[in-house]
From TrEMBL:
<dbReference type="InterPro" id="IPR013784">
    <property type="entry name" value="Carb-bd-like_fold"/>
</dbReference>
<feature type="signal peptide">
    <location>
        <begin position="1"/>
        <end position="29"/>
    </location>
</feature>
<keyword id="KW-0732">Signal</keyword>
<dbReference type="InterPro" id="IPR032812">
    <property type="entry name" value="SbsA_Ig"/>
</dbReference>
<dbReference type="GO" id="GO:0030246">
    <property type="term" value="F:carbohydrate binding"/>
</dbReference>
<feature type="domain" description="SbsA Ig-like">
    <location>
        <begin position="38"/>
        <end position="137"/>
    </location>
</feature>
<protein>
    <submittedName>
        <fullName>Ig-like domain-containing protein</fullName>
    </submittedName>
</protein>
<dbReference type="Pfam" id="PF13205">
    <property type="entry name" value="Big_5"/>
</dbReference>
Length: 547
C-alpha cells in the first residue's frame, strides 16, 4: 500500500520549494538602479510626408520618435507660418506625433511648422529644440536664410535660449499680443539661423524673456529686447546679422510693488529710477510728521517708517523733481501686530576689516539713540575704551566705530542689549562681533594711462571684477591717468562706455524711438592688482563700433 503520508509531505515540500524559487526569482528581476541620467531628447525616426515635400496636398503629418514624449505648452510654443485662422491640431499616438491641418492652404506657398520647446521626453523632459517641418504647396520651397549671433549689450556675453524672430514690415506687431510665427532660438554659443524664408522686407528682433515667460510676446516691464533699426531686405542668404539685447527703461512711471511689511514699514518698488524723489503722507496728514524715508542707490525702491501706526488707511504721494507721479493707498486692521528685531550687520568680509574702510554698523530700522557705555571693545582680550561711536550724518541706518585698529590683533566688540534703540523703542539683543584688520600689503594700486580716440566725446571707464560687477567708475573726455587705488589683490578688467550724451551713466535703448544702447567696449587686458604692488599700464580706446 502506498505511503500516502510520505507522498503528502513530499508534495508539500515540493510546493514550498517551488514557491520559494518563484519568490526569490521574482525578487531578483527588477528595474536597473542608478546609471547615467538620460540627457538626450527624442530622436526623429520618420516624417510622413517627408520634410521639405513639394506639391504638398496632405491633411495630416506624422512624425515618429524613438521614445515616448509629451506635448508641453502647445499654444505658447507651436506656430505655423503663414498664419492660419484655424491652427493645426497636435495629438500624440504612442511614439507618433500627428498634426492635422484644418484650414485650407494657399497655392504655391512654403509653410513652416515651428514646435519651439513643445516636444520633450516623458522621463527627464529633454526638449527637442528648434524642431520644424517645412513643405510647399507648389513646386518650389523658399530657401533663404538669416543667421548671426545674439549677445548682451551690457556684458558682451553671448546669449543662449533667446528667441530670434522676424516680422514682415507690413505686420510689424512687436507691441501687440500676437506671437511671431517665424522664429528660432539661439544655441549655447549664441548662434541662430532662420531657414526657409521667402524674399521680402522684414524687421528682426531678439527676445530674452524673463523667468516665467515663454509666450514669445514682448513684455517691456520684464523682458530684454534686441533689434536692428533698419529694415532687412531679403533677396539672398544673410549672415552676421548680429543682435544685442538690452532692458528698456519704462516709458511711464508705475509702482511695481507696494506692501505694509510685518514690522510696520512700507515698501515701494518703482519701474523707473527717480532723480529727486520725495514721499509725502497725504492722509492722514499728521502721520507725515516724523516719518523716515530711505531710498536705495538707484532710487527705484523706497522704505518708509511711520511713528504713528494707528491709522486705518493712509495715502502716500510719490514725487520726482517736484511733480506728483502717483498716489498709493494702504490699509491696516486695528488688530494688526508687528514684529521687530533690531539686528546689527557690519562690513567685515571673511573675518577681516578692510584697512581703508571704517568699521560700519548697519541696522534694519532707523536708530533713534545709541549708548556707547553698553559697548565693550576688546583687543586681544584686553578692554579698550578709546573708541568712538559715530552716527552717519545722512543715513539713519548706519553707525561707525572708530579706533586705531592694528594688524595681527583680534578684536571683539560686545554690544549689550539696548546699546541701540530704534523707532517704537525697538532695542538690539546681546551680540558679539569678532574680526581682525586686514594688512595693507594685501591691497594694490593700478596707474592706468588712457588714450581716447576723440577728445570731443565723453567716456566712462568702469573697473569690473571677474563676474563683471562694477567696482569703480571714472568719467573723462581726454587723454590722462586714472588711478585705481587701494583695492584687494585680485583679477580686474575694464570696460569703456561711449557716453554719447555725456550724462555720466550708461543709457539703454528704446525700440519705439529706434535708439540702440550706448556702445560698450571690453578691454581684453588683465588689469589685476597684485598684493602690495603699484602697477602701471596703458590702454588705447578704439573708436566706437558701428551699428
Amino acid at each position: 500500500m502506498p505511503n500516502l503520508k510520505a507522498q503528502y509531505f513530499n508534495l508539500k515540500n515540493l510546493a514550498m520549494l517551488t514557491a520559494s524559487l518563484l519568490f526569490f526569482g521574482c525578487a531578483s528581476i527588477q528595474s536597473p538602479q542608478g546609471g547615467p541620467k538620460d540627457t538626450e531628447p527624442p530622436k526623429i525616426l520618420k516624417m510622413t510626408p517627408e520634410n521639405l515635400t513639394r506639391n504638398f496636398n496632405a491633411k495630416k503629418i506624422v512624425i515618429e520618435f524613438d521614445e515616448y514624449f509629451n506635448i508641453k505648452d502647445e499654444f505658447k510654443e507651436f506656430s505655423i507660418s503663414p498664419d492660419q485662422e484655424t491652427p493645426p491640431i497636435l495629438k500624440k499616438r504612442q511614439k507618433r506625433l500627428e498634426i492635422t491641418i484644418q484650414d485650407s492652404l494657399e497655392k504655391n506657398t512654403t509653410y513652416t511648422l515651428n514646435f519651439g520647446k513643445a516636444i520633450a521626453d516623458v522621463n527627464e523632459s529633454n526638449v527637442v529644440k528648434n524642431l520644424s517641418y517645412v513643405f510647399s504647396t507648389g513646386p518650389e520651397i523658399d530657401s533663404l536664410s538669416i543667421a548671426g549671433k545674439v549677445s548682451s549689450s551690457l556684458t558682451g556675453e553671448l546669449e543662449k535660449e533667446v528667441t530670434v524672430f522676424i516680422l514682415p514690415v507690413e505686420r510689424d506687431t512687436l507691441f501687440g499680443k500676437k506671437r511671431p510665427s517665424i522664429y528660432t532660438t539661439t544655441d549655447s554659443a549664441g548662434n541662430y539661423k532662420l531657414n526657409n524664408l521667402r524674399e521680402g522686407k522684414y524687421k528682426i528682433y531678439a527676445l530674452k524673456e524673463n523667468t516665467g515667460g515663454g509666450d514669445k510676446i514682448y513684455q517691456q516691464i520684464s523682458d530684454e529686447i534686441g533689434f536692428l533699426k533698419d529694415t532687412i531686405v531679403l533677396k539672398g542668404n544673410l549672415d552676421n546679422i548680429n543682435l544685442q539685447t538690452f532692458k528698456e527703461l519704462a516709458p511711464t512711471f508705475r509702482v511695481m510693488d507696494r506692501k505694509l511689511n510685518s514690522d510696520g514699514s512700507i515698501l515701494l518698488t518703482f519701474n523707473q529710477q527717480l532723480k529727486q524723489p520725495k514721499l509725502t503722507v497725504m492722509e492722514p496728514t499728521a502721520v507725515d510728521v516724523g516719518k523716515y524715508v530711505h531710498f536705495n542707490k538707484r532710487n527705484d525702491t523706497a522704505r518708509i517708517w511711520l511713528n504713528d501706526l494707528t491709522f486705518d488707511s493712509a495715502k502716500v504721494a510719490i514725487q520726482d523733481e517736484g511733480k506728483v507721479l502717483e498716489t498709493v493707498a494702504f490699509t491696516r486692521a486695528k488688530r494688526d501686530t508687528y514684529q521687530r528685531d533690531l539686528t546689527i550687520s557690519d562690513n567685515v568680509n571673511g573675518g577681516k576689516l578692510n584697512p581703508y574702510q571704517r568699521y560700519t554698523l548697519t541696522f534694519p530700522f532707523p536708530v533713534t539713540a545709541a549708548d556707547a557705555s553698553k559697548i565693550v571693545l576688546l583687543e586681544d582680550s584686553v578692554k579698550r575704551t578709546n573708541f568712538q561711536l559715530l552716527k552717519d550724518s545722512v543715513d539713519f541706518l548706519k553707525y561707525y566705530v572708530t579706533y586705531p585698529w592694528r594688524t595681527k590683533r583680534t578684536y571683539d566688540i560686545k554690544f549689550a542689549a539696548g546699546a541701540f534703540t530704534a523707532i517704537f523703542n525697538t532695542k538690539n539683543k546681546d551680540v558679539t562681533k569678532r574680526f581682525t584688520l586686514d594688512g595693507t600689503d594685501n591691497y594694490g594700486t593700478l596707474l592706468l594711462k588712457v588714450n581716447v580716440p576723440d577728445t570731443s566725446k565723453n567716456y566712462i571707464l568702469e573697473f569690473i571684477d571677474e563676474k563683471k560687477n562694477p567696482i569703480q567708475s571714472f568719467s573723462f573726455n581726454k587723454n590722462g591717468n586714472i588711478v585705481f587705488s587701494k583695492y584687494p589683490a585680485g583679477k580686474y578688467f575694464a570696460r569703456i562706455i561711449y557716453d554719447e550724451n555725456g550724462n555720466g551713466i550708461w543709457d539703454t535703448g528704446n525700440v519705439k524711438a529706434g535708439t540702440q544702447p550706448e556702445k560698450i567696449w571690453y578691454s581684453t587686458d588683465d588689469m589685476s592688482l597684485k598684493a602690495n604692488w603699484d602697477r602701471e599700464m596703458s590702454i588705447t580706446i578704439p573708436p566706437p563700433p558701428k551699428d
